[in-house]
Amino acid sequence: MAFLNLHKGKLKENFDYLKDIFEEENISWGVVSKLFCGNRTYLNELISLGVREIHDSRISNLAKVKEIEPSVQTVYIKPASKRNIPKMVKYADVSLNSELTTIKWISEEAVNQNKKHKIIIMVETGDLREGVMGDHLIDFYAKIFDLPNIEIVGLGTNLNCLNGVMPSADKLIQLSLYKQIIELKFNKKIPWVSAGTSVTIPLLLHKQLPKGVNHFRVGETLYFGVDLFEEKVIEGMNGDVFELFAEIIEMQEKPMLPSGSLAANPQGEVIEIDESLYGKSSYRAILDIGLLDVDPKYLIAEDGELEILGASSDMIILNLGLNPKNYKVGDTVKFGLKYMGALSIMNSSYVDKKISS
After folding, report:
1. How far is residue 54's CA from residue 77's CA, in Å, rounded to a whole number?
2. What pLDDT, on a 0 to 100 scale, did the predictor assign at position 279?
3. I need a surface site. Which of 15, 125, 277, 326 has the fewest CB within 10 A?
4. What distance lies between CA 192 and its chain's CA centroid?
5. Average pLDDT for residues 12-39, to the nearest whole number?
6. pTM for this structure?
7. SS3 state at 5
8. Same domain for 127 and 185?
9. Residue 267 confidence (pLDDT) above 90
């Protein structure tokens, strides 16, 4: 049976690496846990590292964090829907917001629950996902800073999440300037400029991060050690915290081309025939995992000679060529994972989740 393995020692090494660089620059940070999809075993591992702030886009996942360790500060990182606000206020200490109406609802619910709810106002800086337009930010703040049971703790932004716009010193300086303007105009302190996600870490490593940025929200670089500017593993970090193991459930020598009249497959694809492959055969392996669990484009075979030919809902097909390594039925094939691949597998109840040292 296919299973996902988390190397807790490598996760700790990545955590310690980030902890050291943030402490050196006096930057606060929280860990984005949405990759774990609420898996309690993995959340326990995360909290055991000493994480004191956890961010997630699912309220149910934050509820599990509070069950495991109530003292961890929880942060809800997408705009809340109206019907979810009572649960969000109950389980999230902080939320990222950019809608005036929503913040008013949060204020009303925080009063009902007799809680103080903290808010990071998200500001649009070019990627065109969530965020208040900069020209409207002062008026926006004026309408919410004195709402009951609401505390504004930061200005934040997201980059590279929709259109691929990368962070730059200029964009982050602008966000810091907004903070200074608001503080002077309203005589209020805003503790955080939360402009840092994994994609911003290379600016920090290359000493290009504006001094005003003092809060990060980190997921991908923690779990994959990746520099998202150069798409490579950062020296001193691990890119293989997660590994997928899939079992070979059939192995046959077969023709390299299908035979018969061709139509679209269940994924809507029509196979193109390479006439140079007529009459040729190779060993093909079927794995016990499929599109229901992960898109093969997010898998990285440890054996670079393997070729992923395609997938159906429950099976992935490999081309082994002449099978020089003598794979056989019952063997497992190991894959590294890209972020979206790990996210899909974590969300699949059909793939076991394990931990190793």
Report:
1. 10
2. 66
3. 326
4. 22
5. 98
6. 0.94
7. strand
8. yes
9. no
In total, how many domains does the chain have?
A: 2
Crossing angle of helices 59-68 and 40-48, in 10° steps, is 60
Euclidean distance between CA atoms 184 and 347, whole angstroms = 46
In a domain, 252, yes or no: yes
For the question of residue 34 being annotated catalytic, the response is: yes
Taking the CA atoms of 259, 261, 265 and 270 in sequence, report the sign of the dihedral they define: positive
Residue 93 shares a structural domain with residue 50: yes
Residue type, 186: F
Q: Report the 3 state secondary structure along 124-137.
A: CCCCCCCCECHHHH
Q: Which two three-digit tokens encode residue 270? A: 């029509």
Set 34, 64, 118, 353: catalytic member: 34
| Backbone phi and psi for residue 221, each to the nearest 5 degrees, phi listed first | -70, -30
Residue type, 237: M
Distance (Å, rounded) from C-alpha 229 to C-alpha 210?
17
Using CA atoms, how far apart are residues 22 and 121, in angstroms rounded to an integer? 22
Q: Distance of CA 325 to CAs 67, 245, 252, 345, Å?
A: 47, 17, 14, 27
For tokens 């907004």, the residue is 178
The CATH number for 339's domain is: 2.40.30
